[in-house]
Amino acid sequence: MLEIKDLHAAVDGKEILKGLTLSIEPGQVHAIMGPNGSGKSTLSYVLAGRAGYEVTSGSILYNGRDLVAMPTEERAAQGVFLAMQYPVEIPGVTTLTFLKTALNAQRRARGEKELDAMSVLKLVRGKAATLKVTEEMLKRALNVGFSGGEKKRLEILQMALFEPKLAILDETDSGLDIDALKLVAEGVNAQRSPERAMLVITHYQRLLDYIVPDRIHVLARGRIVAEGGKELAHELEAKGYEHIVGKAA
Amino acid sequence: MSAAPETKKQVAEIGDKYKYGFVTDIEMERAPKGLNEDTVRYISAKKSEPDWMLEWRLGAFARWKEMREPNWARVHYQKIDYQNAYYYAAPKSTPKKQSLDEVDPKLLETYKKLGIPLHEQMALAGVAVDAVFDSVSVATTFKEKLNEAGVIFCPISEAIRDYPDLVKKYLGTVVPVTDNFFATLNSAVFSDGTFVYVPKGVRCPMELSTYFRINASETGQFERTLIVADEGSYVSYLEGCTAPKRDENQLHAAVVELVALADAEIKYSTVQNWYPGDEEGKGGIYNFVTKRGDCRGHRSKISWTQVETGSAITWKYPSCILRGDDTVGEFYSIAIANNYQQADTGTKMIHLGKNTRSRIISKGISAGKAQNTYRGLVSVHPKAASARNYTQCDSLLIGGKCGAHTVPYIESRNPTARIEHEATTSKIAEDQLFYCLQRGIPQDEAVSLIVNGFCREVLQQLPMEFAVEAQKLVGISLEGSVG
Question: Where are the domains of chain B?
Fold first, then answer.
C-alpha cells in the first residue's frame, strides 16, 4: 500500500529526512518511534502533503501511484488521513459543518454523490457515541475551546467518518491523561481492519501498550536506525533512545 | 438575487405567462453629457415632477457647485470629471448583446455558482431577451398584498407625484440636502429609487426588496431611497443583488434615508456586489453612498446589515441618529476587498436620547493588494444619559500585500455613558488551510469556509434566503486569493 524508498525531504532548505525507506501493507499497524527532532512529524507532513515540506529525492508510492505528485486534498480523497498532533481551531465554523464540508468534498472528488445535512448528521451520530463526542461538541466551532482530549477524540471521529485507507496518527497521545488515552486508543483499535494500514507516530512507548503495532521503526536523524516487533518499544523504554541510536551510528 | 421562495415561484410563473415581452428602445432617453442647471431640469421634466421638487433639486445643485469633494477617506482614485458623465442615461449604456455567447464567460461562471436562473442571468448581463417578464404584472401582484396592509411601496418618482405630502414631510430630513458633497449631488440629480411608507401599527407582511420592482435595477447611478415606518410599525427591506452587474458607469452616489417613529423598527439589509474592476485594478464602480437612519420616536429601532463585496471604491457609513429615548441602533457589516479594491466603511452612532443603545459588529476581510478601513464614530451627547455602545471590529488578512485599518472615533459628553470597543486582526493561518486540505477540502472552498466562519455573527443577521447567497458570494469574491 505504502512504499517509501530512500526518501529525502527538506524544510526551508534544511534536509530533515535523509534516506528513509519503509513499506506498509494493508491491515498492518506500524509505529514510528524516535527522539525529538528525528523527523517524525516531518514524515507525517510529507505524506499528507503540507506546503513547505519538499521532497528532494526518493519516492513514495501509494497504491502504486506517485503520492508526491498528488495535491494535498486529492491525497485525502484517495484515503490518506493524518490525525494531527495539534488540531487547529476554525472560529465560527461549527464542527458539524466542517465534517459535512470535508466529507462531501472527498465524495465529490471520488465522483460519489454528496450527502445532505440529515444523512451526514446520522452518520456522525452513529460514530460519535463510542468516542464520547457529544451533540454539544458538534455544534461548537471546530476545536474552539475544546480540551486536549476532546480535540484528539474529534480527530479519531473524523478518521471513523472518512474511512481512510492509510491513517497516520501523529503523537495522538500527547497531552492526554490515561483515561483519555484509553478512550482514543479504543477508538483507533475499533478501526483496525484488513483493508486499512496505520502508521502510529509516537515519542513514548505508553501509547503502544494500547495500540499494539505489528512492527516498530526507530527514526533518528532522518533515517530508520532500528526495526523490530512490539517488544522493541519496551527495550527503548528501558534503555533509552541513545542506546539504540548510538549503536546504529 | 434574493427573494422568498414563494416570490420566486410567482415571478417564474409570471415569466412563463409573458413569453413575448417587450424590449424598449431606450437609447433615446439620455441627457446631454455634463452637469448644469439644464441637466437638473431635464431630469425633473423626464420624471414629470412638480415645481417644488425641481426647486429642491436646483437648490441642491446651487449648493453643490460651492462644495468640495471630501478627501479624508483612505481611498485613492483619479479625479472624477463630473462634466464628462451622463446624469440621466438609458438603463443600459452599453449596446444590448444578442446572446449569452457575447457575455464574459467569467461572469456567467459566477452566476452559475450563485444559482441564478437563466433569464435573470440574461437580464443582469445586459442581454436582449424576448422573454422578459412583465415588470408591471410582478409589481401588481405584490402591490395588492401590500395595499391590503396599507403599505406604500413604489418608485420614489411615483411617490413624488402621488404622495407629495409624505415625501415633502420626510425627504431630506435625515440626510439634509447640504449634508455632504455626494449627498448634495444626489439631491440634485437623483434619477429614481424607492419609497416605502408603513402606516401606524402595521407589520409589513413581506420582506420588501428592490427585486420586486424589476425596473429598480435600472435606476442608474443616483438612487434615492426613503423609508418611513410610522408608530409601532415594522419593516424589513432588502437592497441589492448578489450577482455582479457589469456597469460601465463609474460613479454611484446613492442616498438612503430611514425614519422610525415611536416604537417602530426598520431592518435594512444590503448585499452590494458591483463590478470591482479587474485583477489589475482597471475599471470598477466608485460607490459613494450616504445612508442614515433616524430613530425619531421613543423606543424605535434601526438595524443596518451590509455585505459589501463589490465596487472598486466603497465609501459608505450607514448611521443611526438615536434621537428618541430608549432607541436602539445596530450596524452589522462584512466588507471584503480583494485585488485592488479599496473599502472605507463603517458607521456613526449618534446618541441623543436617554438610555439609547447601539451595537456595531464589523468584519473586514482584505486580500490581494486591497485596503480595507473601518471608520466609525460613537458620539454620546450631554442629554444621552445611560447611553451604551458596544463595538467589535475584526479584521482578517489573506496574503501579505493587503492592509486593514481601524479608525474608531469616540466622543462622550455624558459621564453615565458606557462605551466598549474591541478590535482584533488575524490572518488565515497556514495551519488552518493545511488542516482543511488534509481533510479533502480544496483551497478556495477552505478559504470560503474560514471566512464565512469569521463573518458568522453578521451573516446570521441576514434574512435566511439572503444569507445563503451571501455565503456563496463571500467565497466567490475571494477565489484565488491564496497563492
Answer: 5-125, 135-477
